[in-house]
Structure formats: C-alpha cells, structure tokens
C-alpha cells in the first residue's frame, strides 16, 4: 500500500463564479473603506465642534463670573450707601 498525498479538491465552479466572487469582495471592501473615511471626516468635524463649544463655554463662564462680581459690588455699594446715610442722619 503506497500512501499518495490526497489530491487537492477540484472546484466544479466556473471561472466566472470566481471572478464574481472577487468583484463582490472588492466592492465590499471598497464600500467599507469609503464608510471608514466618512466616519473619520465626521469624527474630525465633531472634534472641531467640541473644541469650539469648549472655548465658548469657557468664555461664558468668565462672563458669568464677571457678572456675578459686578452684582456683588453693586450690592456692596448699596449697603455702604445705606450705612453712610444712616451715619449721617
């Protein structure tokens, strides 16, 4: 008994099937690549928007602190004017 290596399986598929399969796979990967590029572009835009919103937020926080400080100063002025009026009367 001689032990010959098994013959590779023979494909009964026509060559056009292999071509169609290869085209499908190529199309599938091309669509995936385009989709990935779109996601990367959108991610970049969203990161830019986040940066802009964070800058706006920081500016608004400074404005709120400034407004609060002005309110506190106006309240203090009113209190001091009332104290002055009381001392002068």
Summarize the structure in words.
The chain has one helix at 15-88. With 89 residues, it is an all-alpha fold. It has one domain (24-89). It is rod-shaped and about 120 Å long.
Strand content: under 5%
Give helix and strand order, one letter per element, not per position. H
Query: What level of helicity do the residues show?
Result: over 70%
- Main beta-sheet annotation: none
- Which of globular, elongated, flat, extended, rod-shaped describes the shape? rod-shaped
Question: Distance between the terminal alpha carbons, to the nearest Å?
Answer: 129 Å
Structural class: mainly alpha
State the low-pLDDT regions, or none: none
Give the overall average pLDDT: 90
How many separate domains? 1
Task: Describe the structure in brief.
By secondary structure, the protein is an all-alpha fold.
């Amino acid at each position: 008994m001689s032990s010959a290596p098994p013959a590779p399986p023979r494909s009964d598929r026509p060559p056009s099937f292999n071509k169609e399969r290869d085209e499908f796979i190529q199309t599938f990967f091309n669509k995936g690549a385009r989709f990935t590029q779109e996601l990367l572009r959108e991610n970049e835009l969203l990161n830019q928007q986040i940066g802009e919103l964070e800058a706006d937020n920081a500016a608004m926080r400074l404005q709120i602190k400034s407004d609060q400080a002005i309110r506190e100063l106006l309240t203090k002025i009113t209190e001091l004017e009332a104290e002055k009026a009381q001392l002068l009367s």
